[in-house]
Specification:
The complex is a heterodimer. Chain A is an alpha+beta fold. Chain A has three helices and six strands; from the N terminus they run αββαβββαβ. In chain B, helix 3 (102-113) crosses helix 7 (189-203), helix 9 crosses helix 18 (396-423) and helix 19 (443-477) runs parallel beside helix 22. Chain B is built from 26 helices and eleven strands. Classes of the chains: A alpha+beta, B alpha/beta. At the A-B interface, helix 2, strand 3 and strand 5 of A face helix 3, helix 7, helix 8, helix 13 and strand 11 of B. Strand 5 of chain A pairs antiparallel with strand 11 (433-434) of chain B. Chain A: Residues 23-101 form the Ferrous iron transporter FeoA-like domain.
Amino acid sequence: MTDASLVLPAPLAQASPGPVSDTGLDTWPLHQPAVLVRLAADPDGTQAGTLRRLAEVGCLPGETLRVVSRGWLRGGPVAVRVGQATFALRAHEAALLRVRPVSSSQG
Amino acid sequence: MDTPVPRLALLGQPNCGKTALFNRLTGARQKVANYAGVTVERKTGWLTTPAGRRTQVIDLPGTYSLAPLSQDEAVTRDLLTGRLAGEAPPDLLVCVVDATHLQLHLRLVLEARALGLPMLLVLNMADVAAAQGVRIDTACLAERLGLPVVTAVGVQRHGAQALLAQIDDVLAHAVAPHPEGVADQIPDPAELHRQVRALLADAVHTPVQRWALSDRVDRWVLHPVWGYVGLAALLFLMFQAVFAWAAWPMEALDTGMAVLGEWVGTRLADGPLRSLLVDGVIAGVGGVLVFLPQILILFLFIFVLEDSGYLPRAAFLMDRLMGTVGLSGRSFIPLLSSFACAVPGVMATRTIGHWRDRWLTILVAPLMTCSARLPVYALLIGAFVPRRSVAGVFNLQGVMLFGLYALGILSAMGVAFAVSRRTGGGARTPLLMELPAYRLPHLRNIARGLWERTTIFLRRVGGVILALMVLLWFLSSYPAPPAGFTGAPIEVSWAGRLGHLLAPLFAPLGFDWRIVVALIPAMAAREVVVAALGTVYALSASGDQVADALGGLIGSQWSLATALSLLVWFVYAPQCVATLAAIRREAGGWRHAAVVAVYLFALAYGASWLTYRLALAWGAA
């Protein structure tokens, strides 16, 4: 049901490649704040809707995110605090959020 | 009537309280709960403003943005942008935001503002925001946005007064015509985000410690171990309660029905009218009525869970498992709704964006045990499973009920797994689901929900079930047996003959012709089988047995194997016309409905046969 026309606006889709040191939020430690560096590229075009929705709920570069819970077993969902809200994301969705520790210099 | 009635649309993000506000404004009773996606279609109501203006109010499904990802969100976008054929955009857009989540919700306001419609902003849940120490400078917000801003508490009696006054004001002055060519491009999320940030910095003071309680609760509720222990305990308690708490009101209803039957029986002369009332109406309809307390207890649990915000957490906990069998995380809430009834469950699949995921969810939704099956389970369990405790704490009947629900869930998992394996997809289905803040359930909300359930149940009992029972009584009583016939008259009636005709088909499952007769009207609604058994057994019983309650009657006449087989039949039971019609409507064709009916029938037949054979082999004859 996803419209073919629903694509990311240009500035986000071409977000800077970012430092090589960024990590997917899916593997980020629990309760550790993380700064969102960029949203991952969408190589096969299947994640466009998800990427846009993530940006719409506030997952934008510079935001601080926190994993508040991690589900059962490996590959389970994570609960992520974004601003004032909490969202449950599947691991492959969380992996689209590329983050780095808060302490390193803010861009 | 020369001036057209103004139309007002409620727009907002999921779970911001639009529907509570809609109910408050229009006196409607649409369902509200604490999770995203309760409203999946537009609802219309009417209100009269303080100045006496009659206004149409449209409640829309919540959406995070005007660029939809699923069908319910598309409804909202289409209505606002005038894409619906023959329908102009609304005259006034009432943008509702949750005052405790302004950062997330204000971006939709900015996006909607670009539509150029007359608009006003409602800061809903103002009471909760104030209690959390959030201070909002509404004047500043109004000035910066260029919109009137009011606060509201959708769940309080006078919570929408300011809004009503403001609607009058805006409608009186809204002379600005709709701009031609509504803005139709997707705005840059980053830019909107910057604007929201700037607005928040100027107009809102938010204390640092927020959400602390919800966070502390979530440490346990979402815990990788304790979370599951809690979920299992909760479900178990629910099924225990269905039997334990309902015992005395059910006995009272049962006794009431027996007394009523006897009273009518002694007042009326022996004849068709007495038979119709006693055997058809009281034995049939009364037999279903007895299960009202159990249905209400089940719904009490469902409503408390819905209102508290626990449901999306349960979805979170179950997501890994759902993903393994190829179901989307978004399937959880539609499937959970199916425990009440599969019809709203199938409708709720509109929140699932991918068609393949949606179809898979529709396919397995009828396997969730709906509340109409509860009377069937309760009757058979009550008749065949002794009321004794297991391991000192659990009631064996409750354990059995839990098992039947679990069987339905496991079968749904199995079907989903088999189908998604065959169709190949399912590797990367989305979840992206908001976990709302916990809330104490509103007593009034729950009481109203239970009352509504009671009236729905009574209407079914007094409507379709009563009508079917009268019909069944007629078919089971005529033609009258020839003189000198020694058996029960029902044996030679139309229903009896049909039952005998179909009996060989169901004999391998352990069903005799009387059960077959009762299964046919249960096509209309599953709980009808209980009423139908009541009528059929009342008519086939010889004089002195009639007063006996149905439970006792079948308990003495059926083998345990037959009872188990029938229980398992109802786990899969394809016969529910309303569900099949909903599937046809939502999936877009009878072909889909036929697929569901055929596979459910095959499963039901196979599983019942297996159960009957195994039970016989273990000596449960």
